[in-house]
Amino acid sequence: MTDGAPAGPIEELLHEIWQEVAALDSGEVATYIPELAKADPATCGIGLATLDGRVYTAGDLVPFTIQSVSKPYVYALALADRGQDAVLAKVGAEPTGDPFNSISLDEHTGRAFNPMVNAGAIITSSLVAGSTRDEQFQRILAGLSAFAGRDLGVDESVYDSERRTGDRNRAIAYLMRSAGLLDEDVDAQCELYFRQCAVLVTARDLAVMAATLANGGLNPVTDVQVVPRDVVASVLTVMATCGMYDYAGEWLYRVGIPAKSGVSGGVSAALPGQLGLGLHSPLLDPRGNSVRGVAAADLLSKRLGLHLLLPSERSRNGLRRTYRADAVRSRRGRPRSHRDLLDAEAWQIVVHELVGDEGFASTEMLIRAVQDDPRPARWRVLDLRRVTRIDTAGVALLHSLVARLLAEDVAVCVVEPRLQLPKASLRDLPDAVHRFLDADSALEWCETQLLDGLGVTDDLLDGLVPLTQQELLEGLPEWAVAALEERLTTRVITAGAIVFDEGDPADGLYFVGAGQVASDIRIRNQAGRRRLSTIAAGSSFGELALVDGRTRSTRIVALEPTICYVLGPDEFAELRRRDPASAAELVLAISRMLSARLRSSTADVAAFEADG
Ligand code: GLU
Questions:
Q1: Annotated catalytic, 533?
Q2: Among candidates 131, 314, 85, 297, which has minimal Cα distance to 206?
Q3: Strand, helix or coil at 104?
Q4: Of 156, 251, 381, 612, which sits most exposed with the smallest number of CB within 10 A?
Q5: Catalytic: which of 21, 55, 56, 68?
Q6: Mean of pLDDT values over 304-309
Q7: Could you tell me if 346 and 486 lie in one domain?
Q8: How many domains does the chain have?
Q9: Is 460 helix (H, G, I), strand (E, B) or coil?
Q10: How confident is the model at residue 1 (pLDDT cuts 50, 70, 90)?
Q11: Is any atom of ligand 1 closer than 6 Å to the C-beta of 35?
């Protein structure tokens, strides 16, 4: 795009930067390869490729020879073809203060210093797969094309020009051969390297190539995995430390994006996990880098805060929210009675929702949320739907979290995302993990498990005694019952569980909605046997707690799955404050019941005495 209104904010930004840097006119076009001297010094192009394959450009997208910008990409191919050890045996990863075309090798290790200087690059090309030089070149051309996402060609005149004048590179190659790093045919080796340097690209291509590295070796435009993910970090490392000639340190300091530049004025810069940049303008500064390319990258990095070492904010947002199923229910329609039960008990189901990159930081947050949970859940749903990527740390820590939860008898549900998973993945989670495609299905499953576990049968729920039919509340005006109902919580008690124990603080008045409980006071009946005093649906217990607020005088045990409605002391106090008339009705009802009990026990005692 050279003129006209930019289509959107990104185009506008690139256009502005392009205008600013196009105005710079310092620097020289490289001439040591005679053909390069013909480059138009006014040319300036910018490309930016995202990791989902969108490419933005500004300025001139004229083809030029890739030159040294080919080095990291061919290094990636060599690593893919030979493995890291074989490559490192001949080419190190140490920055050098020497010029890129220095005729030297690392005397300490007997290797070329790094793959970004010519010595290392000539060896790197020789390591690419192929049984003849021609096959090796085809591999290089196909590899560079795959990085760019289109078929690239070669500028034969630049190739010829360099071949005719490239004695310095031959000298380097001879030195490498004398050190045992190259085989016999030095000329052929150099020609392979010259051809690689003469491959034609545009600023757009350099952006897509960089985005492929930034994207773990997967070309975001074509979706082709060009090199394995695990070679990418090695490539980006040498770009970061050695990619910009003798400006590498300051480039990393100022711009902070791993990059490689070349004598024809190209720069390809890869910001891992974010974007690829391609820049082209032939005027070079004294260190051999494109004047406008460096300036454009610097502006873009500053405006967008792209520096690699700028601590990322993203990691803090990994755990988006944690909620319990008593607050967020599944969409499954359930009868009112089931809903009441879930209101009361579904706090035991906890959902952790994660977003974005799942790495160390967000997984650690999840682990902490689980560990510090004051109410230990029996079901945990790990909702990874919004996780876009999960790295090695994320996988390792999730595995151990899941193993611990399972060992503690917590049911673990994983909501599966569509992840671009690394090798070690969530697929190897233990079979005991329940997998779901969405959080709603996971919630529904947990709810059903919870209801089943409570022994809640439909019969039990069908027989639920409503509040209006509770013995204690008989004869109370409707408005008083309604006021009470608003303040009740539902408690589900499994068979055999202790509802409360002797000496417990008084936690309220209980209405039995369904099921049956028994007080543990055993009364000697006439045959001399002890029996339990049972309290069935429709009856209430624990009312003294509201009256005197003292601790419990007896233990109450559920004889079968039981559902109670509970009025706590705080709710009772609030009822008295807010609705004294309803509270008075309740107190009267309790008094009536207590006096009825008193009369009957007086009658019992009288009968007992008469019998005695
Ligand atoms: N073909 C060029 C050479 O080896 C590339 C140099 C460069 O771009 O740094 O001299």
A1: no
A2: 297
A3: coil
A4: 612
A5: 68
A6: 92
A7: no
A8: 3
A9: helix
A10: very low
A11: no
Cβ neighbour number for residue 280 with a 10 Å cutoff: 33
Nearest atom in ligand 1 to 100's CA? 9
N residues, the chain: 612
Q: Where are the alpha helices (DSSP H) in 262-386?
A: 291-304, 336-345, 360-371
Answer whether 118 contacts ligand 1 (Cβ < 6 A): yes
Q: Tokens 């503690």 label which residue?
A: 408
What order of strands is seen across the sheet that includes strand 556-558? Answer: 498-500, 556-558, 516-524, 530-536
Query: Across all residues in the chain, what is the average pLDDT?
Result: 89
137, 172 Cβ separation under 8 angstroms: no
Are residues 281 and 168 part of one domain? yes
Q: What is the CATH number of the domain that holds 392?
A: 3.30.750.24
Strand partners, 74: none
2 assigned to some structural domain: no
* Domain edge (last residue) among 400, 419, 453: 453
State the pLDDT confidence band at 604, using cuts at 50, 70 and 90.
low
Query: Residue 504 carries which side chain, given as an amino acid letter?
Result: D
Domain limits for position 364: 318-453
Ligand 1 centroid from CA 62, angstroms = 19
3-class SS of residue 125: helix
The answer, yes or no, to whether residue 606 has pLDDT greater than 60, is yes
Unique residue bearing structure tokens 């599966």: 416
Last residue of one domain, picked from the residues 421, 453, 485: 453
Mutate to test the pocket of ligand 1, among 29, 31, 67 (most ligand atoms within 8 A of CB): 67
Mutate to test the pocket of ligand 1, among 162, 190, 261 (most ligand atoms within 8 A of CB): 162
What residues pair up with 412 in beta bridges, in sequence order? 380
Same domain, 324 and 263: no
How far is the first Cα of the chain from the last one, in angstroms, to the nearest whole number?
112
- Which CATH number do you get for residue 151? 3.40.710.10
> Within this chain, do residues 300 and 407 fall inside the same structural domain, yes or no?
no
Find all residues with CB under 8 Å of 537, minimum gap 6, and list them: 463, 464, 465, 512, 513, 514, 515, 516
* CATH (domain of 541): 2.60.120.10
- Gap from CA of 468 to ligand 1 centroid (Å): 91
Contact 523, 530 (CB under 8 A): yes
For 43-76, the pLDDT digits (tens) are 999 999 999 999 999 999 999 999 999 999 999 9
Per-residue confidence (pLDDT) for residue 526, from 0 to 100: 52
Same domain, 433 and 538: no
Q: Where are the alpha helices (DSSP H) in 408-517?
A: 439-453, 458-462, 478-486
Any domain includes 309: no
Question: Do the domain assignments include residue 461?
Answer: no
Query: At residue 529, does pLDDT exceed 50?
Result: no
Rounded to an integer, what distance in angstroms lies between the CA atom of residue 321 and that of residue 308? 28
Question: Residue 316's pLDDT is what?
Answer: 59
The model's confidence at residue 602, banded by pLDDT at 50, 70 and 90, is confident
Q: Do both 252 and 399 map to the same domain?
A: no
Residues 435 and 293 in one domain: no
Greater model confidence, 384 or 278: 278
Q: In this structure, is residue 311 part of a structural domain?
A: no
Give the bridge partners for 352, in sequence order: 322, 382
Residue 90: active-site member: no
Q: Give residue 296's pLDDT.
A: 98
Tell me the CA distances in angstroms from 281 to 23, 158, 418, 546, 553, one per residue in order: 12, 17, 40, 85, 90
Same domain, 119 and 240: yes
Look up residue 549 and give its two tokens. 């607020």
